[in-house]
Amino acid sequence: MMSKHKILFASMVMLMLAIGIVTSVRAQTLSDEKIASIFALEKIYLNRAFDTVKKTHKIPRSIEKGFQPITDWTSGYYPGNLWLTYEFTKDKEILEKAKYTTALVEANKHFSTDHDIGFMIYCSYGNGYRLTHDPKYKAVIIEASKTAIKRYNPVVKSIMSWNPDEKRDWKFPVIIDNMMNLELLLNATKFTGDSTYYQVAVQHSNTTMKNQYRADYSCSHVVDYNPANGQMRKRDWNNGNSDPATAAWSRGQSWGLYGFSFMYQYTRKKEYLNQAENIASYILNNPNMPKDMVPYWDYNVPKYPTVKDASAAALLASALMQLATLSPKNGKKYFNAGQKILLSLASSKYLNESGKGIYLLKHATGNYLRKSEVDGGLIYADYYFLEALLKYQKLKGKFN
Fold it and tell me: Is 169 tagged catalytic?
């Protein structure tokens, strides 16, 4: 049974949510009270999950897949959610849990099975270093970057995402998700002065820009290369729609927008800003974007059921908030679009206001066609939602 203290706290959270909704609907902004209520709700979910994390040393991933070993690609997100919640609340108990769970995933600094080391380490140790400046966290980021560039091929000028696969006829597969891992490398150069990491990030971005994207600035999930001569062999799919010629997996489009936005932020290379703005234009002007701006699992799937992906929306909102600070011409437009997404995600349709379970957002989809984690809670959906809210709170005084 719940204690009187917990019942009172949960009731206060529900009241804060209600007040925030009324205020937000009237002004079409998210009030500070509403944002605070969301982080208070997240604290409930984080604390509930922590008991299992401490007992099993496994990390929450999704409603369907439960808690996973630290080698799962999503293992950095739960520590990241703790860091982001600490950033907002300054709660010392949450800080200690962030430190504890971040330490749990340290071994991933040597993870070289695929490209996911960036998700594992930067979401956890990257946020930890940003908020504490602990030199131990910096050292882990540098070591992880050394591991990450072992998968770089100077002929292809790209980091191999997954390993060769005869069944899929893949020799050197690269996925759009891999753009997200480049921020780890950019910070390694910042920390060490060694430009090797920076150059790998730039070359990978250039290769992705050249081969992953179509004329309309949509992208396929997978591109396969010949590792001997660097030539693109084919575009392919593993998530999103199964037609690699037309598929526009919604989270994949968001990965790309987020990645090219920070590539411009770190390098100030104008081509990356142009790429990010063109991707944003494809997404924001897409005729299949729903009115609430929470996209379906693919932008080009009229023959399939219209299942939403809140993770694609949360990631898109965070990317748009970042791009708003980088684009002199279109910053206000990007902010407004991101704000509209956040208003939708903060509504009862998408926000888990029940206080039950451990996931903040509903209606997130991992991989629709593979019938994996469809229409439920995903740890990374919560991460990018929290990140977007923090960015939004800092920017709304400027743009509203």
Answer: no
